[in-house]
Amino acid sequence: MIIFNTDLDNTMIYSYKRDIGDDKLCAEIYQGRQVSFVTSRTAELLKKVNGAVTLVPTTTRTLEQYVRIDLGIGTPKYALVCNGGVLLIDGKEDESWYAESFERVANCQSELAKAEKLLERDENRTFEIRNISRLFVFTKSSKPDQSVKMLQNELDVTKMDVFYNGVKVYAVPKALSKGIAVERLKKKLGGELVIAAGDSEFDVPLLNAADIAIAPKTFPEPEKLRPDTIFMSKDGIFSEFVLQTVLEYAGRQAPTGKFRCTLAVK
Known about the structure:
Low-confidence stretches: 254-266
Distance between the termini: 24 Å
Helix content: 25-40%
Radius of gyration: 18 Å
Number of strands: 15
Mean pLDDT: 93
Structural class: alpha/beta
Number of helices: 8
């Protein structure tokens, strides 16, 4: 079994603010507005990939945010949301998975509460503070770098990761990462090969836990990634490159489930 763990935002789908050309399809509607899109080519490739491998959306999005997404392939058999803390099977939450996730971050509950209190006093905060399923804390800031620095100075960084993506600020237990979720799911499903794709700092653990990692050439701090990471070396749409690469690997799987050879993609 090939498992394909893929980030969503800026990996498979793109905000309306991003120019991906006119040949595109809506992938997300929020408050009556079309806010995310896929290229038509991506939509075609997604259907092929979904038939060839076990496609697992793997996202920091909450369940509420995730269910707004329509990739045009129906409900994926598996999905990892809340940074991997929640597993969906046929669209329904796996309670035992969440119980294990919470157990992994139980010793960080005081740090999460502390992060909330610190952010309540943060003058740069521009959004409500959300504690996502008691797994991690999220908000937005007008000066996210300053908000992150403040949290890093006050929280136990041996237990917690603090970072930002655009204006979004996160405080996440180290025990809750996409990489750990990938390893857990591979063990649960008995996968032989994990391919992963992602575009941001959130995805470093995801990419490093996979057997094959795919990243855009614009990946921040690429030195954090495994040395054999496949980088998109030319211009184009990252989602299309990712899906084409996955199909090439899937095509090299023998009928027995073993792989005929190792593919090097430039």
